[in-house]
Amino acid sequence: MRSPVPDYLHQILDECGGDNSGETADYIPELAAADPEVLGICISTVDGVRYEAGDAETEVSIQSISKPFAYALAIAQHGLEHVLDRVGVEPSGEAFNELSLERDSGRPLNPMINAGALTTHALIGDTGASADERFELVRQGMSAFAGRELQVDEKVYDSELRTAYRNEAIANMLRSYDVIGQEPHDVVAGYTRQCSLLVTARDLAAMAATFANGGVQPITGERVIERDVVRQVLSVMMTCGMYDAAGDWMSTIGFPAKSGVSGGILGVLPGQVGIATVSPRLDAHGNSVRGVRLCSRMSRDMGMHIMEAPEPARAVVRRDRTLRGPSGQLVRVVSLQGAIQFSGAERVLRALEGSLGDVDRLVLDLRRVASLNNVAERMLAEAVRRAQHDGIDVTVLDPEKRLPDPDEGQPVPEYSDDLSDFADHERV
Ligand code: GLU
């Protein structure tokens, strides 16, 4: 069987590709000259399978899509607190290149606007690092996300730096308020090189999938960034990632994303996929017209809005039976199933609460449980502890040893789901 996923991507590319509205970015001469017809899409699963259609291997400069990665590298180097002291996390609602600082704190509002991105770029490397050393750290860090060595488009770099009057102004503002300590021009040059790194939709999908995968690059298997840093970065992408259309994007499309003026959009569906589109013509907010259409289409067709309330999880209590043994002892056998998180564990606790009074033995069968998250694990372990405290003999059937074993050292008893092990017991 051929997977229908690539066919679906070709289909939506055909459907959205006809929209020729929008303009390529014109404030960077080299981008104004980009081929406006380029159109590529790629999605990467968290286990590293990439599906693509169109110009998924055409290189474009990464531009602002580099910002979440530089932010991640700055947090990884200094810790969140240090970075938060210097760059805020509030959506600005202003243009990405506004000369602005947060009123009380004097910090740039967030790392997705240029003031914040210049500051995060300046944070990378030792205080005494040269501009080249700093850039090299950024390049290596971003290459680890992509799973290949990224290189600079020198033409785009020269073209942008020659006309970077606004970014020079922002960097001078940052220097004058002591937000950055380096020479403003060096920071602008390094940041501009960061924005000029060449990527394809394939690269962007892999970079997005690294975030979706909690920081582990799905193809190389390398842990590129810690999980808690990923959470921070995705939260800021969610609220500030799509220029001044972030609220509109969130409500209609609904997954964290970052766009860039060269026409790329990178989206992340945590735990599931990384998404990338490339198409250079931009709308009035600076987001790729066809990229937004493609993402909106995928979000709708594939239920990707992260605020969509999931269907109530399948009952986690698969069976709950009470048996009476030959000598009158009562055995409660509770079999669980599926992926158990807080709400599932709460249902189990609710089923047990107040109903174990006469029970002599509790058998908690976890053999069909697909996954237990950390909170569910702790809640069930606590239920076991409390039942034991009430004098109940507890057996957990948990061959994968996800709960601390209450009968440590005891082999998991033989037990079959048809209760043949309790053949001499009666259903109560
Ligand atoms: N290098 C560009 C700038 O700083 C990036 C802008 C963007 O992609 O939003 O102006």
From TrEMBL:
Biased composition range(s): Basic and acidic residues: 396-405
This enzyme's EC code(s): 3.5.1.2
GO molecular function: glutaminase activity
Catalyzed reaction equations: L-glutamine + H2O = L-glutamate + NH4(+)
Disordered: region residues: 396-428
Enzyme class at the top of the EC tree: hydrolase
Amino-acid positions noted as binding substrate in the UniProt annotation, renumbered to this chain: 64, 114, 160, 167, 191, 243, 261
Residue ranges constituting the STAS domain according to the UniProt record: 331-403
Gene3D superfamilies in UniProt: DD-peptidase/beta-lactamase superfamily (3.40.710.10), STAS domain (3.30.750.24)
Cited Pfam families: Glutaminase (PF04960), STAS (PF01740)
HAMAP family, A to Z: Glutaminase (MF_00313)
Protein name, as recorded: Glutaminase
Gene that produces this protein: glsA
